[in-house]
């Protein structure tokens, strides 16, 4: 290049594609949704331990739930173990 123009080097590894930006936005959105606090109430059905166990919520504590299992046993579980809250219409 001549003396008046400076040369600009761009490394291809530093460039981001639109697809990468969209994937990053989707991931950030999913993280935000998963970190939202879910409120539980007595009488609700939940699935926990990767959808393998179903229980009826009997009592709600700040970080755990007392549930009645299908085997008629009581169990206290951490709310982070809950996979899904079963909603009925």
What key phrases describe this protein's structure?
89 residues, alpha+beta, five-stranded antiparallel β-sheet, 1 helix, rod-shaped
Strand order, sheet with most strands = 4-3-2-1-5
Q: What's the mean pLDDT score?
A: 79
Give the count of helical stretches.
Answer: 1
Major sheet size, sense and barrel closure: 5 strands, antiparallel
Would you list the SSEs in sequence order as H and E?
HEEEEE
Low-confidence stretches: none
Share of helical residues: 10-25%
Shape: rod-shaped
How large is the radius of gyration? 24 Å
Q: How far apart, in Å, are the first and last alpha carbons?
A: 70 Å
What fraction strand?
25-35%
Structural class: alpha+beta
Count of extended strands: 5
Structure description:
It is a single chain. With 89 residues, this protein is α+β, with helices and mostly antiparallel strands. It contains one helix and five strands, in the order αβββββ. It has one helix at 18-34, and strands spanning 45-48, 53-60, 64-69, 74-78, 82-86. A five-stranded antiparallel beta sheet has the order 4-3-2-1-5, with no helix packed on it. The radius of gyration is 24 Å and the shape is rod-shaped. The relative contact order is 0.15. The model has no long low-confidence stretch (mean pLDDT 79).
């Amino acid at each position: 290049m001549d003396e008046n123009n400076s040369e600009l080097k761009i490394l291809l590894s530093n460039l981001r594609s639109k697809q990468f930006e969209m994937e990053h936005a989707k991931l950030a959105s999913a993280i935000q949704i998963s970190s939202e606090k879910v409120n539980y109430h007595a009488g609700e059905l939940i699935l926990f331990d990767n959808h393998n166990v179903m229980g009826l919520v009997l009592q709600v504590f700040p970080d755990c739930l007392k549930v009645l299992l299908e085997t008629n046993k009581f169990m206290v579980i951490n709310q982070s173990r809950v996979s899904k809250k079963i909603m009925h219409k």
